[in-house]
Design a protein that fits this description.
It is built from 8 helices and 11 strands. Helix content is 34%, strand content 18%. The protein has a 6-stranded mixed sheet with strand order 4-7-8-9-10-11, with helices on both faces. Strands 1-3-2 form a 3-stranded antiparallel sheet, with helices on both faces. The protein has a two-stranded antiparallel ribbon with strand order 5-6. The chain folds into 2 domains: 95 residues, Winged helix-like DNA-binding domain superfamily/Winged helix DNA-binding domain (Arc Repressor Mutant, subunit A, Orthogonal Bundle), CATH 1.10.10.10; 173 residues, no CATH class.
Length: 300
C-alpha cells in the first residue's frame, strides 16, 4: 500500500426509515460471520462464498434485508469506467456485531465498530477487497477437496509480531505479508505468504522486498511465529492501471534478484473463474509456462 496516495471517502447508502421485517436464517448468520472475518465484501464475493451461481436475486434480497435492519452497512465502490452500476461493499454494522457477540461467534474484546475509519477510504478498501478475492479463491478450492485452510490476516500477523526487519549495507526492508495461510494440518501443512500487488510499489522497493523474503526464507526465522515449516510467497497482481506488464516485470525482477521456486505469481483476473489449486494459472521465476501450484504429498 502506498501511503502517499490521496484517499477519498466513499459515499454510504441510506437506510429505509421503516425497515422491512426480517427473520434471520442460518445463512444470514454465515453472511455476517464472513463479513466479520474479511471486514469488507462485495455482493459478488458473498454470493460466491454462500450462494449458488444462479442465486443473485436471492443474495441481493438477503443483503438488502440485513442492511435495512442495521446488521450490515454498505458503501458505494466507484466505477472505473462510464458503464455499469456502482457496486456495494458491505461491512458489519452494530446490530450485526451485537448478534454475533450474543451467539459467541466473536472474539472477546471486539468493539462495536470492528473496522478502523481509515479502512473505508477508497485505496485501502480496494486493497482489502483484492486480498479477499484471493482468500475466497483458496477457500472455495479447499472446500471442494475437504482441505483445511487457516488464514491469518495482516492484523493478526501484527499481533503475533510476525513483522521482520531485515537490513544489509545496501537496503532495508520490512517483511509483513498482506496475509499468511496454511493448507493442511500439522507437519503436512503448506505455508504461503500473500502479497497483493496493485502496481503502486516502485521497482527498487519491490526488488528489496524480494531479496528480504529470500533471506527470511533461507534463515528460517519465519518458523518462530508461523505454523508451517515450508514457505512460498504468492504475488497476486490485481491492478493494471499503472503498469500493463506488471506481472512480467515482477517475474523478471524476481529472476534478476536470484529468486526461483520461492515466488509464485498469478494474474488476479483469473481468481474468480479458476481453481487456484488445480488450474495452471501460476507463473514461477525461471519458468515460462504456467504451472499448477504445488502442495505437499499429503494433499495430492
Amino acid at each position: 500500500m502506498n501511503p502517499t496516495v490521496r484517499q477519498k471517502r466513499l459515499p454510504r447508502f441510506r437506510r429505509s426509515a421503516s425497515p422491512p421485517p426480517i427473520c434471520l436464517t442460518p445463512r444470514d448468520l454465515q453472511i455476517l460471520e464472513w463479513i466479520h472475518r474479511c471486514r469488507f465484501l462485495t455482493r459478488e464475493q458473498i454470493q460466491r462464498l454462500l450462494f449458488t451461481p444462479g442465486a443473485e436475486s436471492s443474495c441481493k434480497r438477503r443483503l438488502t434485508l440485513l442492511f435495512h435492519n442495521s446488521y450490515v452497512g454498505r458503501l458505494f465502490l466507484p466505477l472505473r469506467n462510464a458503464y455499469g452500476a456502482s457496486r456495494a461493499v458491505y461491512y458489519l454494522d452494530r446490530a450485526g456485531v451485537r448478534l454475533l457477540a450474543h451467539t459467541r461467534r466473536l472474539e472477546a474484546g471486539l468493539t462495536e465498530r470492528p473496522w478502523r475509519e481509515g479502512e473505508r477510504e477508497e485505496v485501502f478498501l480496494s486493497h482489502t477487497l483484492d486480498i479477499n478475492e484471493v482468500r475466497i479463491a483458496f477457500t472455495l478450492a479447499c472446500r471442494q477437496r475437504g482441505l483445511k485452510l487457516e488464514w491469518l490476516d495482516e492484523r493478526t500477523l501484527r499481533r503475533l509480531d510476525v513483522r521482520q526487519r531485515l537490513r544489509d549495507p545496501v537496503t532495508a526492508a520490512v517483511i509483513l505479508p498482506d496475509a499468511y495461510f496454511t493448507i493442511g494440518e500439522g507437519d503436512a501443512a503448506d505455508g504461503f505468504a500473500l502479497e497483493v500487488d496493485r502496481s503502486t510499489v516502485p521497482e527498487r522497493r519491490m526488488r528489496a522486498r524480494m531479496t528480504a523474503y529470500g533471506e527470511w526464507a533461507a534463515s528460517g526465522t519465519y518458523r518462530r511465529r508461523l505454523p508451517a515449516a515450508s514457505l512460498r510467497v504468492l504475488f497476486a497482481i490485481t491492478s493494471w492501471d499503472r503498469d500493463g506488464q506488471r506481472l512480467a516485470h515482477l517475474k523478471r525482477w524476481c529472476e534478476e534478484e536470484g529468486g526461483r521456486s520461492l515466488f509464485w505469481f498469478v494474474d488476479g483476473r483469473h481468481l474468480a473463474a479458476a481453481d487456484v489449486l488445480v488450474d495452471p494459472v501460476w507463473l514461477v521465476a525461471g519458468r515460462n509456462e504456467p504451472l499448477k501450484l504445488p502442495l505437499g504429498a499429503a494433499h495430492l
